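<instruction>
Derive structure tokens from the sequence
<data>
Labelled lines for chain and fold:
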Amino acid sequence: MASTEQAPLGGKRIVITRAPEQAGELSGELERLGAEVLSLPAVTFADPADLTPLDEAIHALRSFDWVVFTSQNAVRFFLKRCRRLGQMPQRDGAPAAAAVGPATAEAARKESLQLDFVAREFRGIALAEELRAQVAGKRVLLPRSDRAAADLPAALRSSGAEVVEVVAYCTSAPESFDRGVTQAIRRGAVDVVSFLSPSAFHNLAEGIGLETLRKVAGRVALAAIGPVTASTIREAGLTVDIETTESTAASLVAAMTRYFAQRLPSGVKLP
């Protein structure tokens, strides 16, 4: 059997509520550290039913000074539609591109999209604050989820930008949840339920009942990636046991490892 030093998460059962197509890095790293990963997707993503506003924005892309991405999905769905229309952003005459955080930036780079700005903080509103001088009097395209909050466009507008919001993808709850995993949560038979977005928390809380999460508090740790997700959980009256300031899979794994290291028997040490 692997030692605690070799597998610091050995024996831990960790629920990931992220969509499967985006959970690979997190799942792989948790499993490498010895955890048993239980997949419970709490969000699904799809193209908007009406693509007309998105298509119009893409065709008018050169009329914008900036395009701002706040999530990996925004990058993925926006560029997928650009390809379909034969309107991929090019450097000559294309708007400058900005992203919130390294995960979104990495998604853009994988799509060969050159970024001109990456926010130092991991909140959309922080990007607006950092870009304040550069967007004043400029036209900004904001492709985003149909559930995105209003704080970022409001902050950009307060900086003097003309903001065009367009739905690039829709976020919704899955039609059903894996009964085996939800029953394990109800029994307190998992160690962590992790949330990587406010939507994931809201959807799961509605699916299995907020009261269920309250009842297992103390036995099941709730983990949140980033301050926005953590705030959402706290606003529902629950405790966030594991929290990251950075919205990356690596930071969440590190936070979980630290959390359980603090609960090891005396004399057992992690590297």
